[in-house]
C-alpha cells in the first residue's frame, strides 16, 4: 500500500513539474523541442480545443486514481490471507446503481461541451475572406477569389536535395498564405490528384482536401505572426515535404500585400512576395 502511494505521488509530482515548465518551451505557431501538450492557441476554436483537452484530462485522472485505489484496496483487504473464508454476497443493489448512474453522468458531462465544440468548429460564421487551398503532389496552391482571384504555389523552402532549408526546417515555404488578423477566414480545400489534408495545429484546423469535393473550414487568428502546419494525410512519396505556412498581418499590411500579389501573380508568377510591416515570426 505504501509503495503504491509513493508511486502515485511521484507520478503527480512529475506531471506538475512538466506541466509547469512546458509553457517556457512552447513556441507560438510551430512545434517546440520537448513540448508535451498542444501548440498554443491562436484562434477561438483552438482555445476551446485546449480547454476541452484539459477538462478531459482532469476527468481521466480522477477515474485512474479511483480505479487504482479500488485495485489496491481489493488486493490488500480481500486476499486469501486477510480473508481465508470468502463472503457469499452476490448482489448489492446500491453499488450496482452507483456504477451505472455515475458513468452515465460522466458521459453526459463530456458530451455537452463536446457537441458544443463540434458545432463551433463546423458552423462557419460570415467570412471576411475566402482562401482556396488546393493540395497537389507535393505542394499547395492558394487562390484568393475575394481579392482579384489570383493564385500562387507554395513549396518547401529547401534546395533540390533538401540539404539546406530555411528555418524552421521542413516547415518554411517560399510563398506563405497571408491573411489579416482578427478576421474570419474561410478555407476551401480540394485535392488535385490524391487526398491531402490541410492541418494547422495552432488554429485548430484539420480538413481533408479530396479530388472532386470542395470541403470547408474556418479560423480567426487573434495574434499576428507566422503559423505552420503540414499535410496530415499519407499522400505519397513527398508527403513529409508539403508544409503549410500562414502569415497573419494587420489589415493595412494585408491590403498592401494584395496589391503586390495582383501584379506578381497576374501571370501565375511563382516569385516570392514580401509583406510590408509584417508581424514578428512568432506573434510576439
Task: Explain briefly what this protein structure is.
With 284 residues, the chain is α+β, with helices and mostly antiparallel strands. Helices cover 36% and strands 21% of the residues.
Which helices and strands, and how do they pair?
Layout: H1 2-25, H2 44-77, H3 93-122, E1 129-136, E2 139-144, E3 150-154, E4 177-180, E5 185-191, E6 196-200, E7 205-209, E8 215-219, E9 225-231, E10 243-249, H4 251-264
Parallel strand pairs: 1-5, 4-10
Antiparallel strand pairs: 1-2, 2-3, 5-8, 6-7, 6-9, 9-10
Helix pairs in contact: 2-3
Describe the model:
The chain is of the alpha+beta class. It folds into two domains: 121 residues, Helix Hairpins; 136 residues, Immunoglobulin-like. 36% of the residues lie in helices and 21% in strands. The strands form two sheets. It has a five-stranded mixed sheet with strand order 3-2-1-5-8, with no helix packed on it. The protein has a five-stranded mixed sheet with strand order 4-10-9-6-7. The longest helix is centred in the first third of the chain and has 34 residues. The C terminus is likely disordered.
Amino acid at each position: 500500500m505504501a509503495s503504491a502511494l509513493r508511486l502515485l505521488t511521484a507520478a503527480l509530482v512529475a506531471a506538475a513539474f512538466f506541466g509547469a515548465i512546458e509553457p517556457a518551451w512552447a513556441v507560438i505557431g510551430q512545434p517546440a523541442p520537448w513540448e508535451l501538450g498542444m501548440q498554443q492557441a491562436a484562434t477561438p476554436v483552438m482555445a476551446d480545443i485546449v480547454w476541452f483537452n484539459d477538462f478531459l484530462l482532469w476527468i481521466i485522472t480522477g477515474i485512474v486514481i479511483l480505479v487504482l485505489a479500488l485495485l489496491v484496496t481489493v488486493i490488500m483487504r480481500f486476499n486469501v490471507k486477510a480473508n481465508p473464508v470468502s463472503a457469499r454476497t452476490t448482489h448489492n443493489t446500491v453499488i450496482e446503481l452507483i456504477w451505472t448512474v455515475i458513468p452515465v453522468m460522466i458521459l453526459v458531462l463530456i458530451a455537452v461541451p463536446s457537441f458544443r465544440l463540434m458545432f463551433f468548429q463546423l458552423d462557419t460564421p460570415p467570412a471576411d475572406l475566402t482562401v482556396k487551398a488546393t493540395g497537389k503532389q507535393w505542394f499547395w496552391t492558394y487562390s484568393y477569389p475575394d481579392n482579384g482571384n489570383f493564385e500562387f504555389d507554395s513549396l518547401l523552402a529547401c534546395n533540390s536535395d533538401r540539404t539546406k532549408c530555411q528555418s524552421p526546417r521542413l516547415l518554411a515555404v517560399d510563398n506563405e498564405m497571408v491573411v489579416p488578423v482578427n478576421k474570419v477566414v474561410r478555407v476551401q480545400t480540394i485535392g488535385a490528384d490524391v487526398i491531402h489534408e490541410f492541418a494547422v495545429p495552432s488554429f485548430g484546423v484539420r480538413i481533408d482536401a479530396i479530388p472532386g469535393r470542395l470541403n470547408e473550414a474556418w479560423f480567426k487568428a487573434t495574434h499576428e505572426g507566422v503559423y505552420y502546419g503540414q499535410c496530415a494525410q499519407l499522400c505519397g512519396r513527398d508527403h513529409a515535404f508539403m508544409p503549410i505556412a500562414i502569415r497573419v498581418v494587420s489589415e493595412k499590411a494585408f491590403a498592401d500585400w494584395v496589391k503586390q500579389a495582383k501584379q506578381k501573380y497576374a501571370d501565375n508568377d511563382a516569385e516570392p512576395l514580401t509583406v510590408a510591416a509584417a508581424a514578428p515570426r512568432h506573434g510576439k
